[in-house]
Amino acid sequence: MVGLKEELLKSIWHAFTALDLDRSGKVLSHNLCTVLNVPHDPVALEEHFRDDDEGPVSNQGYMPYLNKFILEKVQGNFDKVEFNRMCWTLCAKKNLSKSPSLLSDEDAFKVWVIFNFLSEDKYPLIIVPEEIEYFLKKLTEAMGAGWQQEQFDHYKVALNTSREGLSAWELIDLIGSGQFSKGMDQQTVSMAINEVFNELILDVLKQGYMLKKGHKRKNWTERWFVLKPNIISYYISEDLKDKKGDIILDGNCCVEALPDKDGKKCLFLIKCLDKSFEISASDKKKKQEWIQAIQTTVSLLRAGSPPPHKEARQKRKELRQKLLAEQEELERQMKELQAANENKQKELETVRKQLEAAAARAAEEEKKRLQTQVELQDRFSLELEREKMVRQKMEEQVAQKSSELEQYLQRVRELEEMYKQLQEALEDEKQARQDEETVRKLQARLLEEESAKRAELEKWHLEQQHTIQMTEAEKQELENQRMIKEQALQVAMQQLEQLQLERKEALEQYEEVKKKLEMAASNTKSWKDKVAHHEGLIRLIEPGSKNPHLITNWGPAAFTEAELEERQKSWKGKKAASE
């Protein structure tokens, strides 16, 4: 709502400043309430504009009423073109130039509205050279002509030397003069202005004729389509008088190309939540342009971004504000540097004057010094003669004293040498005594350690003798146990050999019995075959073992229970005897 209020205020400012001050408030308020669909409050209007010191020419002015009773109640459900046309009607007659122009009244109105869109947010309203260049480039592009940058640069230089920018009426005169549209007729200029007006003011991103497939009868009908930031409207013709419908766009919409079908080419589909629309463009280029424009619009809706031209205008304003702030900062720094430079100049001038005064004083002092020096030279020359004679006498005395001093110094050096030798002798004696004391302490410590070691060795010797005695007894006992174990081992070895012999004999017996059994089985089988062959019905009863066969750990062998018991008794007896 803040951006909408700023846009409304620019048009209202033109209308308000064009009317007579004593009647502008009431007339303008009535018209604004009508075109903005705001409920009219006659009581508040009369109360605010009564003829006393509290009226519109007082400190309160017109803005408090405009903000409180009109602008704050605007909901956005009004025709912007009709609002601008009302404000244009109130201000155009007074301000519009009467000189010949390429622009019709309608074209001048559209340029005035575009001026309000591009002008700066400060009053009185002006359009800066950067926005003039942007507008003229748009017009030139719409007319299909080439942009003359060098021509505009000359115009911009001339403009910057005299003022910051142009007013709305000066901009209208500039466009109407044809200075930047040479070779173009009035109709071409009018169509270009209309195209730029549609884009910047009516938010028309793209428009043109295309075929649309109906939802009920499925027939194809030519319609004039107008793409805006959140809607695609389609009309019977480009005069926009008979609207046939709208395609509401949001972030969920998408557009995709379709293959040719039903004799129609260059098809694409717009998918929305509730409906889908099949559309046929005139050629592939138009088809791609419309698909790209709709995709860009949907992407802006998803991102919540404003239309491209409004976003570009905001960026240009931010850039100008940034450059202005940098320029102001640079100017401030230049002023500070200039002030500092002036202060330095003043300080240097003061120092120069001080130096000149000091030089004058120094010259005077130098003159006095030279005069004094001449007087002193005369005095010093006399004193110098006297000093020469005194110096000769002093030199003779110094030579004598030097000889005596040399002798004295020689004696001092000899005494110092003797003192050094004495010091060295004392140091050697002191070191020898310290070494003797160290050796004596070392001998005492060694004697103490030797006595302690001797006592410890005596103790170890006694413990060793005791240990040897105990070891001899244990050794004797271990020898007896070893002998007993060796005897038991021999007995066990003998028993093992006896068992191995018995096992060998048992295996031999087992082999013989096995051969006998195999032979008996063979004979029995042949006998049975013969009997069965001759008699057929006789069934022989075969003898079986009365006792179960036992398998021992020496190998396969058959023993009776009695034989096994006898063997076990024999083994136990041998074992007891060996123990």
From TrEMBL:
Its main location: membrane. Residues 203-299 form the PH domain. One of its GO terms (cellular component) is plasma membrane. It is found in: Cell membrane; Cell projection, Lamellipodium; Cytoplasm; Nucleus. The keyword Translocase does not apply. SMART domains: PH. It holds the Pfam family EF-hand_SWAP70_N. GO terms for molecular function: DNA binding. Residues 309-523 form a coiled coil. Keywords: Cell membrane, Cell projection, Coiled coil, Cytoplasm, DNA-binding, Membrane, Nucleus, Phosphoprotein. Phosphatidylinositol 3,4,5-trisphosphate-dependent guanine nucleotide exchange factor (GEF) which, independently of RAS, transduces signals from tyrosine kinase receptors to RAC. It also mediates signaling of membrane ruffling. Regulates the actin cytoskeleton as an effector or adapter protein in response to agonist stimulated phosphatidylinositol (3,4)-bisphosphate production and cell protrusion. The SWAP complex consists of NPM1, NCL, PARP1 and SWAP70. This is Switch-associated protein 70. It comes from Tricholaema leucomelas (pied barbet).
